[in-house]
Structures are given as structure tokens and as C-alpha cells.
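Note to self: user wants both folds in one dump. Writing first protein now.
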Amino acid sequence: MTSRRRLTLLAVTIAAAPLILGGCTADRDAGAGSGKARPAPPELIVTPGDKTREVPVSAEVGTSVKGGRITAVRLTDDKGTPVKAEPREDGSAWVPNAPLQPKRTYTAEVTATGDHGATTTRTTTFTTMAKSSKPEITSTLYFVGNRTYGTAMPVTVAFDPGIPKEARADVQRRLFVKTSPPQPGAWSWLDDGSQVYYRAPDFWKPGTTISVRAGLQGLPIGKDRVGDAEHKATSTIGKQVSLEIDNATKQMTVLRDGKQVRRIPVSLGKSSTPSSSGKMVIMEKHERTTFDTRGEPNGGYVVDVDDAQRLTWGGEFIHSAPWSEGDQGYTNVSHGCANVSATAADWLMGVTQVGDLVTVKGTEVPLQAGNGWTAWNVSWDEYIKGSALPVPSGLRPAPVAPAHPGAVAGGSPAPAPSVSGR
């Protein structure tokens, strides 16, 4: 990558006293002996504090410097082996590239350099805790490595059970996304904490490389649970494809780079099992699969289908339905899916990608948040309200200027009322 943007996040707070030691070193001032004062060395605080024990394996080397900048960080284990780490964009911490090992001792040596060359170095040694016996929260990253995704692909992390509101900031700090070329985005949580999404204000640019890390292994989550695993993946964004389905016309419009390439008749959900209206994302593609709805309301059938593309967790797909071809374009007869002809379904499978946007409008029910990857089903202004951390200023919507007291429709000032002496 020519350039990588690290998601700006705050450092994980580690329950340990900060290290503040004497014995800093400073470059000798050229003016010493001539009455000139030596430059003051920078003030440096490092966490975990020296000799801290029971540190989580998700720990980071926290740094706080005043009057300078961090110029060197070296982290080694108890065998002297270097531990690779990367700085957070705000400089608040160095994050190991993998979880630390349980019941091991680590040493961090951090150097800060002041504006005039004086340096301060701090060294801290800490010991990690044993593998936690607390129950784990299961996490799933719905972003697989070495794939090509559509331009609406959100990075999605799911949790079971959901993350409580008071713990979401700590979890979000351990979710990292890098894009090349840079295209900043933000995280947003579902109300129940079962999923968190990452996307940019606009769709990904074709050709963008996205690298994701969910560094959750051993992370304390609330008082009673810990994170289960470390997830990493790097993939690429492919061509821009989107589908628009209009219940009024019973037609699907296929667009590539915003231009129509085909219209396909569809049959949507009948009144007793309506399709959802909203902005969805293709989640899975199957050349052949089995729908088994036994035990579900309005279900009870088992049927094999070809060329099926999932849109919701609730079971709405676009798929081949040769049995309804006479209704497609005219009448809704499905159980909520978008039925298309066998020929059209086969063609679509060669055109679409997981992560392509599918917009359905005009049906009886709205798409419910979390029923699929619903990150695009709200405006950007509404989406960023779901972040558990402050959203960078460049991604926040611009404040709306108050209207001029005399403004009229169209934004032009209205003439001020005249003052008459009569």
C-alpha cells in the first residue's frame, strides 16, 4: 500500500498506576558553560506501570508525552524477543500486532524527544495474567480475507451475547480498519449490541484494499466476560454494481457504475409474507441451497433453489424461481424473496458480488435494523450516532447554520418590513 490510514481511537485503559521515573537523559547543550540553560527534556508517562501484574493479554503500551514526541518504542518478552507493535494514530499507545501471551513478563522501553533534542527514556516491566476463566463473548467477523467485495460492503462484527452499552467503547477501541487509498469511516452499533458495522460516508471506491483487525482475545468486557478471539482479514473492493427493485413496477434494475445494464421482472412477497423495503447488502451467494421453513410462521415447506443470494438474516433472497415465471413482473406470490427467472438468476450470479447494494421500495413492511447488514439503511448523520466513541471531526456532519430571521423559501433573505411614519 502507498498509504494507510489507521482508525483514530483512544487507548485501552489499563488498570495500573502510570510509570513516572527520574533519571531522564538529555543531550548536552552546546551553550553549556556560557550561561545558556539546557533545553528541558520532555515529560513522559508510560503504562502499564513498572512491576504491574495481572495485565490483560490485550494490553497496549500507553504513552503520554508533554513537550516532545515519541521517537522510539521497544517491547520485548521475557526471553528478549522483540514484540512487533504499531502506534495508534493519535500517539496514545503502541498496539502489539498479536495478543500477548498469558503469564509472561514483558519490558517496554520508550523514548521521547523534545523540540530541541533533549530526550527522556522510560522502562517498565509488567506481567500478564493467566488465561481468564471468565466466560467468553463469541465474536464473528463477516469480512473474509482474499476476497473481492462490492462497494457497499460493511465491515461487520457480530457478538453473542450482545455487548452491553457500558462496554462498547472498550470493544470499539480494539477494532481497527485500514484502507488504501485512504477512505475514512466510522463504527456504529445496533441498539442491542449484537452487531457493529464499519463504513465510510460514501461507498468504497473500486480497487480499494481494506485490512481489518478485531483484537478481542482476552479483552475484559464488562465485569464478567472476556473477548474470545483475534480476527484479521484483508480484501479488495471490486466493480460498482447495485440492484434496485420497485414493487410498483415489479421490475429489478441492474446498474453498473450507475448506468442501467438490464431490467428483470420480479415477483416479491405476497401480502401475507411481504418483502422488506430498504437498503440491503448481498450477504451470501449459493449456486444451490435448500430452504427449510418447517417450524416458522407461514412456512412449513422444504424446497431446493438455484442461484440464491441472501439479503436478510430472516431469509429473504434473490433466487431462481421457474415456478413463478408467469407471475414475475405482474403479481407477488413469494414468501418474501425476490423471485426471478432461471435465466436471469444465472446471469445475476455472474454479475453481482457479496457486498453489492440492493434497494427494495414500495412493499408493505420496512427493513428492520440488524436483519442483515443494514449499515446503509440509515443516513450518515443517523449512522454515526451509533458510535460508542467520538467520531473524528472530519466525519461529523457540518452544523446547520440558523436561518436568517427574514429568510424565505429558497434561502433568500426576505425584504425587511418598512417603517412608516403614518
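First done. Writing the second protein, which came from a different request thread.
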Amino acid sequence: MKWKLTRRFLGSVVTIVVIVGIVNIIILVCLLLYHFKTQEESVETFSRGFSRYIKLQDGNPIVNEEGLKILEKKKAWIQILNGKGEQVASYHTPESLQAAYTPAEIVQMYKYREIDAETTVFVGEAHDFSYFVGIKDRGIGRYVFSYNYVHIIKYLNIILLLFLTVDIMIALVIGFLFGKKLTSPLHILIEGIQQLRERRFKKMAIPKGVYEDVFHNMNELSVKLDEFEKERDKLDRMREEWISNVSHDMKTPLASIHGYAELLKDGAANLTPQELFEYTAIINRQAIYMKDLLDDLNLTMRLRNQQLPLQFQEVDLVVFIRELMIEFLNDSPYADRQIELEANVNKALHPVDKKLMKRAILNFIYNALVHNEEDVVVTIRIDALHPSLDHEKKSSNMASSQGFHTSITIADNGYGIPAKDVAQVFDRYYRGTNTSNTHGTGLGMAIARDIILAHHGNIELSSIENKGTTITILL
């Protein structure tokens, strides 16, 4: 493709140059011929037409007054000869001019500048007399030459061939350079389009000139396509992960539902009402679990892939958490549990999605209650993170709290988490090793962590076995 474009432009340039060269040569030749013809005819016409100023007087030729004035004006002279080549009259002739001529001398006089280098002699005839007209002018010349048509045509062909060869060589050189300069950006552009077709999104260097805007647009297109490709890959991974998670997580409840359904189908007549109730309750519980699992899987996948639009609104976290605790203690089966709130700041305004933030904080509180004894104490503390922290505290917390304004701490004095399990707390399905409680889908902590991250926050966890666990939310 590169050389095809180069040849196309090169052919156009060569054709134009050749045509222009031929036309220029033709015009030049025509102008030269016209110039010589006009120049020659003007002097020859004057010389030959001067006979009208020559009159006969008593059989002798004389030049009338008008003719003499014209000779003076043109700085010319005239010599009139009889049939023997002898001078019978003369006007304004130079002193060195001879008075008689042989036929050969007459021819010599006409062909060459015999008088001086500035005078050209022309021949005319009047009343059976011949005459020489000499005009002294460097701008006037006459060349007499003999030629052979065959030789002239041969030499003209050689000259024309030489001109064409030189012009074509020049055109090839100029055309090649011009074509290369013109087609190089096009070749780069074609390669860029080829890369886009092969899903290789690479920016191209932008050359100066007429193609600059084209390259800018191509680079912008490449960036956009790269973004779309990454987004598509992300969605593909998300779909594959979703399918994998769903298929994995549904196996256990489906197996349970399938087993009890088979039992009911094969032995329903032999089962007591109590057994029927228990089996159908298990199937119902597993179906509800599957529904909750699907909802949680969908939520965590959308959160991790930033596909869930958050409904942000300005919220005072102090008021928000106080109302959340009142609602939790009034309506839940944990109304008699010990939950304390310490607000070390009067107001903490943050843009949050109230529904999701409520779920995250309740998840942390719920885990502190469900994985410990009933007398566990859960403390929720709200603090403002000030830049003016003392040096020691600032040094220890700088890495974790820099850029955040508020911290929410949820601490308990329960069993704590073994050191080997701390790193797995936010993994899917983690339920710990210090409790037999298996209620829930096992995605609560993972979802809560993803909600905090979706709010551009951070979360930290520390735990000491048999002393308790502390979760710090930074916003």
C-alpha cells in the first residue's frame, strides 16, 4: 500500500512535469522563430521597399528628399550600382566603401559584415539598378546558413530526447521526494488503523502539516477504543466471576433442596406431619438462603466493579449513627445487648448513601454481637481527624488517616480473632473459628468493606485474642 500510493503521486508529478516541459519548449521555439522573423522582416522590408524613394533624373537614379530624411533617421547609407556593379550614386556612404563590385563581392557584401562589425548590408533593386542599404545598428543581424533536413531532424530528435531525459530524471527525483514526504504520514496512518483492527491501541507520533488533525483524531479514537475494550473485558470478567460464584454457591442449598424434595416425593405417604413440616421448612429456609445469597452476590459484584450507582446525600454521621442504634435496639432481637455510643465531635457532615452505609455499620455491629457471648460490650466512637494531632500520634497514624476527616470505631471486648485469621476477615464466606453460628451468607464483611471503599473511605481491623476486636472506618 505504501509503494502504491507513492507510485500514484509520483506518476502524477512526472506527467505534469513532462507536459509542462514539452509545452515550454514549444512556446520557446515559437517565440524565438517569431522574434527572428519579425526582426528580419522589419529591416528587410525597409531595405527592399526603399526603391520607392529612388527616382530617375536624366536616366540617372537619385534618392528624393523623403528618402534622405529616412536614411538620416535610421543612420543608414545607400549605394546604387548599375548592371556592371559600378557605383552610379551614393548617399551617406562611408569613405572606405569601394566603388565597383564583382558578382562574388556583391554576394560577400550581403552575407557578411564587410564594412564594420556594427553595419549590416541589405540588397534591393529599383529601375534596373541594384543598391546596397547599410544600417549601422548592433541590434540588427542576419545569418545566412545552409542546412540538411535529414541532419536537422536527427539533431532535433537528439536534443528533444536529451531534454525529455533530463526533465524526466528531474521529475523522478522531485516526485520521489515529494511523494515520499506526502505518503509517509499516510503509511503511518494506515498502520495505525491496522493496529486498531488488531485491538492494539497505541498512540502515534503527530507530524506537523496537513495530517496533524487526522493524527489527533486517530489518537483520540485509539484512547476511546482502549477504554471501551477495557470496560468490555471488565464486564466479561465480571460476568464470568458472577457465573462461577453463583454456580459454586448454589450447589449446597440446591443439593439440600433436591435431597428433601426427593425424600418427600418417594416417601410422603410414610412421613408424619411433623416430619413433613420439618422437611418443607428446610426447603423453604434453603430457598430463602439462595435468594439472600443471590442478592448479596449481585451487590458485592456490582460494588467491586463500580457498577452500582450510589445515591449520595449530605449526612451528619453523628445523628445518623445515633438514629441507627435506636432503631436497632428497639426492633431487633438484640434489644437487651450492651451497645454504647461515644461522639467526640458535635457534627460530622459527609456525602454518603444512607441505605448502603447503614448496612455496612449494622454488619459490623451484628458480627460483634453474634460471634461473642451475650454479655459482650460493643462501643461505637466517632472522632474528628485534625491536622494538629500531636507529633507522636501523628507519626503513628499518618499513613492510615491522611486525607480523611472522620473516623468511626466499632470495638468489642469479646473473643477476638486469632492472628492467623485476621487477614481473612473480609474474604467471602469467612465466619471465624471461634463460633458455631453459621447464619447468613458469609458475604457480610466483604460487602461492608466494599461499601466503605465505594465511599472513597478506608477500613482498618485490629484484634487481640481473648481481648476483643476493633474496626476503624475512615471517611
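Dump finished. Worth passing along: The chain has three domains: 1-200, 212-304, 313-474.
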